[in-house]
Amino acid sequence: MTLDVQEFAIARSSPVNRRWLPLNALRAFDAVGQRLSFTAGAQALNVSQSAVSRHVISLEELLGHKLFDRSGQTLVLTAAGRALLPEVGKAFDRLEQTMNAISANPDTSRPIRLHIPPSLLQQVVMPMIQAFHAEHPAIRIDISSSPAVGLPSGETDMAIVFDRPNIDDRVTDLLWMVRVAPVCSPQVAARNAGKSLEQFLADNPLLHVKLEGQPRGLLWSTFARQCRIELDVERGLAFDANALAVGYAMHSDGIALADIDMFAPEIAAGRLVVPYDTVINDGFGYYLTLRADDLADPTISLVRSWLIAQFAARPGAPVAAG
Prior knowledge:
By secondary structure, the chain is an alpha/beta fold. Helices cover about 45% and strands about 15% of the residues. The chain is built from 12 helices and 11 strands. The protein has helices at about 5-10, 25-35, 40-45, 50-65, 80-105, 120-135, 185-190, 195-200, 220-225, 240-250, 265-270, 300-310, and strands at about 70, 75, 110-115, 140-145, 160-165, 170-175, 180-185, 205-210, 235-240, 255-260, 285-290. The strands form 3 sheets. It has a 5-stranded mixed beta sheet, covered by helices on one side. Helix 6 (about 120-135) links the parallel strand 3 and strand 4 (about 140-145). Helix 2 packs across helix 3.
């Protein structure tokens, strides 16, 4: 329902609150903003283009700012539009998910959407999730995984991200600082015994982990720079996840840079060898992130606290909560 003249005057005279939220206008803005087209937005909502246009104009008047730049051939979001669109999308996504969950089972809460990088999920977090489910069987968690650096592209309630430290408006807890060293199979280590680190790396294929938006050889370049050695970082194979690179190293001639704490079981069992006492902190870590207003959700708050406690309890893990 759109605002009538009297309601609009009241709404514009004071800060917007939920009594005056123009839901149809927000839906229209979301549909147009996602597609950057009034025609496509109208088709998505199965209404006329003029109706969508009126809704967006009423929302712009309510806010006192333009949401779209209509001057060119292509519709462009303004700064105000770019700020509002993701928040509207998140709100509608949350409503849709919760209403569908209630419709399917009114006694069941919506699942918590948790993103975890694949190597950390496989090597560390999977047993934690199993323990959490045994302790809290009524809480549902939907887990997604991708090799992204930083926040994943999909919508989540919480995410463990692989990244360097940064400051934004999200609540961020450091779970794990990464410490890396070259690792290989026992056969490769024996065959190269007595060589210097620089010669060892020069004589064997390098295995890379691809990081979105970063040069292919970034991690090996960082390692070589800190160790003050010359290294051709362009050669070798590249993998989407550290666990894949390390798995390949255990069964081939390749040398991977591995988080020695994450792969401690393989190292202790002798399946993976750290042939040189050269371990560096490359600046990356795993951080638990979520939106500040989601801390008001008791389930999300519980999952956050539980995960922080589990990482803090890991023996020998370099952990701090921030």
